[in-house]
UniProtKB/TrEMBL annotation:
<dbReference type="InterPro" id="IPR007848">
    <property type="entry name" value="Small_mtfrase_dom"/>
</dbReference>
<protein>
    <submittedName>
        <fullName>Release factor glutamine methyltransferase</fullName>
    </submittedName>
</protein>
<dbReference type="InterPro" id="IPR029063">
    <property type="entry name" value="SAM-dependent_MTases_sf"/>
</dbReference>
<dbReference type="Pfam" id="PF05175">
    <property type="entry name" value="MTS"/>
</dbReference>
<keyword id="KW-0949">S-adenosyl-L-methionine</keyword>
<dbReference type="GO" id="GO:0008757">
    <property type="term" value="F:S-adenosylmethionine-dependent methyltransferase activity"/>
</dbReference>
<keyword id="KW-0808">Transferase</keyword>
<dbReference type="InterPro" id="IPR046977">
    <property type="entry name" value="RsmC/RlmG"/>
</dbReference>
<keyword id="KW-0489">Methyltransferase</keyword>
<feature type="domain" description="Methyltransferase small">
    <location>
        <begin position="53"/>
        <end position="192"/>
    </location>
</feature>
<dbReference type="GO" id="GO:0032259">
    <property type="term" value="P:methylation"/>
</dbReference>
C-alpha cells in the first residue's frame, strides 16, 4: 500500500484530538454506530467503529471451527465480524474498561455472547498458554505520547504497544496461524514492517479504504505470517 501519500501532520493531530473528545462526550447510555450494514453500541471513552478497520473486516478469512483473538478490541467490532465469519471461539481483549463494556454489549446484541469471550488484558498478559488460528489487531497507528486511555486507542507512547505485540504474538499463534493487522498511511508503516521482520514474520499488504476523497486518511490491512524456517538448517 502507498504509505507516502501526502497528509498534514497538524491536521491529523486535530482530527484525532477531536475524535477523542467525541469518544468522551457521548451519553452514559451510549451511542449507536452503523458500520458495514450492522449496528454497534459504544459507551463513553470507547473507540468507535470507523473506516480504519474496514479493510481488515472485508479481508478477514476464518475457516469453520477456527479460533480467533482480537487484540485491542475497542467496541468489539472486529471480534463480532470474526463470529459472523464462522469462528468457533473468539476472544476479545482490551485494557480500557469502557471498551470491554461496549464489546460485551455488542457480543450480546449480535447473539454471539456464547462464542465471544471479552477479557481485560494488556495485549497477551492474561492469555498465558493460549494459542489461536487467527489474530486480529487494530492498534494505535502513531508513535505519539498518549495522556489517557482514550488517547491510547490512537497513539502509542514510544511505540511500546506495537513493539510488545510483535515480540509476543508468535507464542500465541497455532501452527499455520496468521495475523490480520490494520494500519494507515499516516502511521508508522516502516516501523511496523521492521518490527515484523525482526520478529520472524512476513508482511503482505491487502485491501485499503479511504476516509476522505483526497485520500489523506487511507487505511489498509497487512496479512502477517511467520516465516518458514528450514528445519534442516
Amino acid at each position: 500500500m502507498n504509505s507516502t501519500a501526502s497528509y498534514d501532520v497538524s491536521q491529523i493531530d486535530r482530527w484525532q484530538k477531536n475524535r477523542q473528545k467525541a469518544f468522551k462526550a457521548i451519553p452514559a447510555t451510549g451511542k449507536t454506530i452503523k458500520y458495514l450494514g450492522k449496528e454497534f453500541l459504544v459507551y463513553p471513552n470507547t473507540f468507535w467503529p470507523f473506516t480504519d478497520s474496514q479493510p481488515l473486516v472485508r479481508t478477514l478469512k476464518v475457516k469453520p471451527g477456527e479460533s480467533t483473538l482480537d487484540v485491542g478490541t475497542g467496541s468489539g467490532v472486529i471480534a463480532v465480524f470474526s463470529c459472523y465469519a464462522g469462528a468457533a471461539k473468539v476472544t476479545a481483549v482490551d485494557i480500557n474498561p469502557a471498551a470491554l463494556k461496549s464489546a460485551k454489549h455488542n457480543a450480546r446484541l449480535h447473539g454471539f455472547d456464547k462464542i465471544m469471550r471479552v477479557k481485560r488484558s494488556n495485549l497477551f498478559d492474561q492469555l498465558q498458554g493460549e494459542t489461536f488460528d487467527v489474530i486480529t489487531a487494530n492498534l494505535p497507528f502513531r508513535d505519539k505520547a498518549a495522556p489517557d486511555v482514550v488517547a491510547r486507542s490512537q497513539w502509542d507512547t514510544d511505540f511500546q504497544t506495537n513493539t510488545r505485540f510483535f515480540q509476543q504474538v508468535g507464542a500465541h499463534l497455532k501452527p499455520g496461524g496468521r495475523i490480520y493487522f490494520a494500519h494507515s498511511n499516516f502511521g508508522a508503516v516502516k516501523q511496523i514492517r521492521q518490527l515484523a521482520k525482526e520478529n520472524g514474520f512476513s508482511v503482505r499488504a491487502m485491501g485499503s479504504a479511504s476516509a476522505d476523497k483526497a485520500a489523506t486518511k487511507t487505511f489498509f490491512v497487512f496479512l502477517i505470517k511467520p516465516l518458514r524456517r528450514d528445519l534442516d538448517a
